[in-house]
């Protein structure tokens, strides 16, 4: 039996089958889970509020009267002895011999002892996994590891939402560690991360994880020209008209045919040559020449894909580090191309189940932005809609849920929410997160860095979690301005000292 924390009392309107109050003998925290016996079995409940009472201060008239008369109640009565902590609880279900019954039919009796929730029961109630899960931290106020079931978390998709600095990337890094640490027998996934700020690139330098991570930056990343179709080009250059598309298709078809006949893989130069020689309207020719020059300038389109992604390994991660890519369009094209390539390869079972993590998802799958400025949105939405059938799991990270594609967000069956204070973003989360209550929404602005709420598929009931410390080294970009400024100051100081020592 776990520690007793209090005793149920009778108030004017409780206990009912849903609500009860209990006077505290031990401290409990709001959102802690407790349990007690009922006629129907062992009830599990959540602490919804904790308040203080004192019978000496309950009557407004007598408090105000004594104050007027200059009498301090404290000096005359044992007021401190009458101060009590009372918690309000919400009954969530009852465990009987058959298991969990969601709705109890009788209220508990006043006088019933209330205990801390038992770890195993709570794990079952929250739908958490044991040692073989994705262990992201601890359930707050409980002696229980927040271990998420791999299938429930990655079978479908996940969104990690919070304002800047609340700990999204840190949490994602913890999840990545967990995925990379799994043994084949526990079920592994391949991880591919779109990393606009180079936050995951640091994994490759880590002594523990480095050997399981490959990082490609803007200089390295290439797209094979011969795999581009006229349709893809039209998407990358939104202003392509149908006649223009037809002209380029003829050229690409010819080149493809020659490739099949053994003439080798063609590059951008080959297309340019064909366009120069082609018999097409001058205007169209100029437009394609201009577009192909722009493509060349991007330094992205070559003969072969890099990374090839023809195979991704389970238990390993590939990071597309876009932090050195300045052109917005180039970032979009890279993300669109590789998202599409991964998904197609997965549909044909050419690569293992994977987790595709997209940082700054509101930039790659934005809401209310014309498709010409949202090149990556289509491929991301496609994985969101169809990915689960093929075990292609999407992880969308965003500090602007309002700006994130509704189609993509609504397919995220698990929401991991860290601190959010912006009312519009809170509204968005309320609409998109399945099973989130107003009560939970109210708690979101008060979360501290590294504290999150998990709702949806991965848990059977919303869980407040303190994210564990990461085992890998945190990369520079995460450092606070103050820290960077101090570091700069220290280094300058060092330089000065060196010079002095030298002189
Ligand atoms: N669980 C945690 N434990 C300890 N420190 C944490 C935790 N979560 C976050 N932090 C700290 O808070 C800082 C901000 O976290 P992080 O970079 O993950 O925020 P973010 O939500 O990704 O922000 P942004 O939207 O700006 O990318 C990190 O540098 C990290 O040191
Ligand atoms: Mg971040």
Written account of the structure:
The protein is of the alpha/beta class and 503 residues long. The protein has helices at 60-68, 73-76, 119-126, 150-154, 168-181, 230-236, 242-263, 268-277, 282-298, 328-347, 361-364, 377-386, 406-410, 423-432, 438-443, 481-502, and strands at residues 4-9, 19-24, 33-38, 41-54, 83-96, 99-101, 113-116, 134-139, 145-148, 157-161, 190-195, 213-217, 223-224, 301-302, 317-321, 354-358, 392-398, 412-417, 451-456, 463-467. 34% of the residues lie in helices and 23% in strands. A hairpin with a 2-residue loop joins strand 3 (33-38) and strand 4. An 11-stranded mixed sheet has the order 9-8-20-19-18-10-17-16-11-15-12. A 6-stranded antiparallel beta barrel has the order 1-2-5-4-3-7. It has a two-stranded parallel sheet with strand order 13-14. The radius of gyration is 30 Å and the shape is elongated. It is built from 16 helices and 20 strands. Residues 499-503 have low confidence and may be disordered. The chain starts with a strand and ends with a helix. It folds into 4 domains: 4-117, no CATH class; 145-221 and 306-472, P-loop containing nucleotide triphosphate hydrolases (Rossmann fold), CATH 3.40.50; 224-302, no CATH class; 473-503. Bound molecules: adenosine-5'-triphosphate and magnesium ion. Adenosine-5'-triphosphate binds next to helix 5. Magnesium ion binds next to helix 5.
